[in-house]
Structures are given as structure tokens and as C-alpha cells.
Amino acid sequence: MSDTVTRGIRIIVEPRFIAEQSNPDAGHWLFAYHVTIRNEGSETVQLISRHWVITDGEGHVEEVRGPGVVGYQPVLAAGEEFQYTSGCPLGTPVGTMHGEFNMVLSDSQQRFDAHIKPFRLAVPTVLN
């Protein structure tokens, strides 16, 4: 799990292994991650884009960038939150993800990155 606060924006990520959609014999492990974005600040913000850094168990890095999350660019007033679930395929049973969401303040149009601390993607039986 990852729980990070940047300028009043709390991002919580809870990953889980999806065994029924994985095929270890073919070198394919699928993970889901549930994200909660909560505006604990006093200003309205909008999520503009995402940047993920995905590292597998062999150290291979993939970066994913794009507008919004799951087709949305949510606007969050103070006290509001947005939740979504997405997935990440890996070629190893263990890996990590981290990144940031680019946010813009509604009043001033000032942009900032809300950081997402690294979290672990791991098959429950894998300890390392």
C-alpha cells in the first residue's frame, strides 16, 4: 500500500494480485491497483495527467504517461475524493510502481505534481 500527501492531495494505492487472469507458465502476472485521490486541502483542483514508473523484478522499467485516469480528469473540491481501479501486467511475479498525478488549482491555474510513493506488486506466495 502507498499513502502520500502533496499540497493537501492524499493519494492512497492498494494493489492486489489477480490470479485468475495470470499465467505464470507464460511469464504473465496481472495486478490490479485501487486508487483513492482525496482533496484534503482548501482549494479546488483538477487532475490533468498521470505518470507511472513500473519496475519488474528484473529491474526493467516502463513509464506510462497520459491524460487523466481511466478516461477522467476529475475536479475535486475541498473534501471530495475520486476512486478508480486499474491494472498492470508484469513479466515477473514481483515489481513496484510509483509516479505522480499532475494537478492544476482551479483559481490560480497553478500546476503541481501530487506524488505517489512506491508500492509493491507481488504474488502473495513470493516473499522477496
UniProtKB/TrEMBL annotation:
Task: Please state the span of the N-terminal signal peptide per the UniProt entry.
Answer: none
The family database entries (Pfam families) matched by this protein are listed as: DUF525
Q: Where is the ApaG domain?
A: 3-128
PROSITE patterns for this protein: APAG
Against PANTHER family, the record matches this protein to: OS05G0170800 PROTEIN
| Protein name as catalogued | Protein ApaG
Q: Which gene underlies this protein?
A: apaG
